[in-house]
Amino acid sequence: MATSTEVLKRIFNAFDPFRPLPAGDQGYVDCREVRGDGDILFQLSREIVYSDPMTCQLYTGHRGAGKSTELLKLKKYLEDEKFYVVYFAADDENDIDPEDTQYTELLLACTRHLLKSLKDKANPNPLLNWLKKRWESIKDLLLTEIDFDNLTIEAQISLFGKITATLRTAPNARQRIREQVESNTVSLIEALNDFIDEAKGKLPDGCSQLVVIADNLDRIVPIIDLESKRLNHDQIFIDRSEQLKKLNCHLIYTVPISLVYSERATILEDRYGAVQALPMIIVRNRENGQPYQPGIDKLKELIDKRLQTLDLGLSLTQVFGDDRVLNDLCTISGGI
């Protein structure tokens, strides 16, 4: 029999707001009716499914609101519609340091994950040749004496991962690596598109197009550049908008909500079109400030569903003791 500590630990981890639910998870609750207009399958997939040209869309929402869960649901939907989807959570895969990120890290992350996913479907030589030409200047920054030519193809591909890992974990080398990549981003994008174009002709199961979903970029901490006096958010998503859109596939990037609702919102819309946002669950009526019972009831349903997935035989009353406590918790949460 589980101890009370073990039970509490299981409950605590079941409600981790930063652990998204995979598509089809039994703990998922459809919250659209109390979020407002927040159907990601309609908002984001419509552009991808119906557009002949490649699309680039931004997606935002408050942290913990369920963006990643919805994006994984979108991934499954697009795969059912015969799209090949490369999804990655940038801060979970040694791609970016959320407290110090620039465009170069994002480009390298896309490169690494596309290579990892498609290396058996296309010749990686365009990207490996790009890296080989710059290896002598980069390897010293990675503190390695590896001879590029003596490596297997798999080992050469893994070097992109070594670069992104060093960018994330070695602040002293970070800026110099950025400078090396920064001066060659145009050629890297060209090489990546050559690789993408070949891969798109060999996608499995009748897939017709490729989609890249770069998640958790909304977690990038806003930092002001001392020289330009501008936020890194602006430099990544506005200054580099053309490069972000340049990959020859459908693209979805998550974006910090603070940028979407700032004075640069119109610039973002000019560059990318309307930014799609996942609304919060409504728990208070805006007009009178009173609790919004449908939203509170939906949160209760969500909590109960998570509890039931643990198979502990516990009811909401057993966990919270008093329905008033649960009501207050849902109300002060502000919604999710």
Protein described:
It contains 17 helices and 5 strands. It is an alpha/beta fold and 336 residues long. It folds into 2 domains: 1-36 and 280-336, no CATH class; 38-277, no CATH class. The chain has a 5-stranded parallel β-sheet, sandwiched between helices. The radius of gyration is 22 Å and the shape is globular. The relative contact order is 0.17.
SSE arrangement:
Elements: H1 4-14, H2 32-35, H3 40-43, H4 45-50, E1 56-60, H5 67-80, E2 83-89, H6 103-118, H7 125-139, H8 153-169, H9 171-182, H10 185-200, E3 209-215, H11 232-239, H12 241-244, E4 250-254, H13 257-260, H14 265-272, E5 276-277, H15 293-309, H16 316-320, H17 323-332
Parallel strand pairs: 1-4, 1-5, 2-3, 3-4
Question: What is the number of beta strands?
Answer: 5
Which strand order do you get reading across the main beta sheet? 2-3-4-1-5
Give the number of helices: 17
The main pleated sheet reads as:
5 strands, parallel
Approximately how much beta-strand content do the residues carry?
5-15%
Structural class, from helix and strand content? Answer: alpha/beta
Distance between the termini: 33 Å
Succession of helices and strands: HHHHEHEHHHHHEHHEHHEHHH
- Overall residue-averaged pLDDT value: 90
State the low-pLDDT regions, or none: none
| Helix share bin | 40-55%
